[in-house]
Amino acid sequence: MTQDIGDASASAPLSADAQLQAELATAKRALAAAADRAQADHTREQLLRAELQHRVRNMLAIIRSIFARTVAVSDDLEEAANHFNGRLDVLSRYQVPRGSDPRGLLDFENMVHDELQSVQASHDPRVTCEGAEIRVPGDIAQLLGLAIHELATNSIKFGTLSLPPDRGTLAIRWGVKDGNFCFSWEERGMAVLGAAPLRQGFGREFIEQALPYQIGAETAFRILPGTVSCDIHVPLWDTDAPDSENQVGR
């Protein structure tokens, strides 16, 4: 009999007061969880807003620099406008990452072909492209893309890509070596160059001064009889990049 009374007591319904207290505790937990989520959303929104402001300020600084140097080295207004528009086109290509990479990384090979396509040289048989599969963050991609654009523009005016179709070569290579992303651009077969724009213009200044300042790159640009070459080494940004066996070679 005692056992029956115990069982009945254990299964007895809660009093109205106890039930109300339980419901209040559940409501408090739900409110606390909602407040935590709201705070997390607010914090995330603040971080995103700060990141956007940083990116906008950085982009405006790049544009101002491009405009100032473009005007400074151009001979006339039309030439300045053409160069400036071309450089803005490069920056715009990397503002919205393409593809399905959830990290917003861009395929470097596609970047190279895009910049060659901008000077109608993506299918030129004198051009060889060779490198590992590497994806680049958008902020670094826009700067590397601008450097490739400057090299390609100079080549179409004064280098290999300005020569008759049966003359000259352009070898473009990239990979990873010693913890750096390594890019190599080498043109051969031109006459002795006298005063190509990259000697003192925006392109060479951008490669030799802006890239080291903006992304910690080490760069080397050389103009020798019959050759133009450029090497750019950038500290590796992605631990998933190819291993150090994928090297840039000559």
What overall geometry do the principal axes of the alpha carbons give?
Answer: elongated
Beta percentage is: 15-25%
Q: Which sequence of SSEs, written as H and E, runs from N to C?
A: HHHEHEEHEEHEE
Low-confidence stretches: 241-250
Straight-line distance between termini: 96 Å
Largest sheet: 5 strands, mixed
- The count of helical stretches stands at 6
Structural class: alpha+beta
Q: What's the rounded overall pLDDT mean?
A: 79
Proportion in helices: 40-55%
Cα-atom radius of gyration: 29 Å
Strand ordering within the main sheet: 2-4-5-7-6
Count all strands and give the number: 7
What does this structure look like?
- Helix content is 52%, strand content 17%.
- The protein is an alpha+beta fold and 250 residues long.
- It has a 5-stranded mixed β-sheet, with helices on one face. The chain has a two-stranded antiparallel ribbon with strand order 1-3.
- A hairpin with a 2-residue loop joins strand 4 and strand 5.
- The model is unreliable at 241-250 (pLDDT under 50).
